[in-house]
Amino acid sequence: MRRSARLTLWFLLPVLLLAGLLFALQRWVTSEGFRDRLAAEASELLGAPVRAQAIGLALWPVPGVAVDGLSIQARTPLSLQRVELRPRWSALLAGQLRVQTLVVRQAVLPEATIALLGARVGAAQASPAGAADEGTDDAIDFSLLPRELVLDEVSWLAAHGARTTVNADLRFSEDGWPAKAELAIVGGALRGTTATLRREGEATAWALDARVGGGRVRGPIEVKLPEPGAKERRVVLDGSLRTEGVEVSALTAPSKPLTGRLQAETTLGARFPERVSADALVNALRSDTRFTVTGATLHGLDLLRAVSTVGLSSGGLTQLDTLAGQVATRGKAIQLSNLVASSGLLAATGDVAISPNRALSGRVRVDVTRGATAGVVGVPLAVGGTLDDPQVTLTRAALLGAAIGTAVMPGVGTGAGANLGDRLSEGLKDLFGEKR
């Protein structure tokens, strides 16, 4: 009997010690003094007031620290309803703090605030000029990053005001690169989109498979790291994506300038430093796409009416039998080139640029067949406005030609004169060496 009691005592003693340790840790972590001290240190580092409603221990499914009601008071506040940090216990027993899992729930992350705070932290951590040794290794220590990141209804608030809410589960390999990622967009323009990213062996290469707008985007993505000892420490990203059957308006929501099913082949790439901000990474991205759209309808613009009024009308829509061309992106800027569209008696070609603020600029030529024997009338139009409100007008030279054509031969002469005026204008530019 004594032996049984002794064994029970030896069994309960570690449990009681652990329970007492957890109780003491809970009292310390949840104390007001600890919370205020942590908030003060974070506020000093970020240069903005940091507040936390409560700090405690999360015991399920794995023990860790939880912070509730975390906020950073900037011009656009950043808020996180709950953050859970679960340590890697093997490292903790060895006296090292390493994060196994980081969980973020119901957060709002404004792009402008993130950029501002990142700049402040970077400036605070920067070494004084000339103080760093040339041989200093400034590579990122991936061991400090979590091995799993869980996002539960986390919203990204873009600089222009658009909000996108996601659920995501990312798992990382020991070298810090993603091993597997699953993402679902549950709010915002691309709601319903899902994507998976799977690493291919030990290489820094992944297979992307995304479902969006009733279609699919998939293909390989590879990252090439700089060679050891290389003078230029640049990371190179390459990818090749195939788009099949995606509804175009799902990619531009809530705007709806174009509807139809998209088929495309895309190559993308980027070169950037080993340490780079999110904004700099976006600006470094380059892509080139060849596309076709079946069942296309252009909303907000009636090209046939624009021809008949020589660009003086707006609104309406244009149904197209075929639409094809090329898209090049350089950061947030978009260039549409070699556009070819046709619909019955109408055919159009041209080039259009889309700026980061969604403004349109470019030129299109619309040819209309007027009956079996009347021939083709072509009208050159300048494209302006925005994606939400596209506008087409005549250039000044084409407008002058249209006026002359109307005086000479009403009707057909309007389009012919506009075409002649535009060509004459381009010829004069070439003659005097002016850039187009």
From TrEMBL:
It comes from the Bacteria. Signal peptide: none annotated. Residues 1-108 form the AsmA domain. InterPro entries: AsmA, AsmA-related. GO terms for biological process: regulation of protein targeting to membrane. GO terms for cellular component: plasma membrane. This is AsmA domain-containing protein. It comes from Hydrogenophaga intermedia.
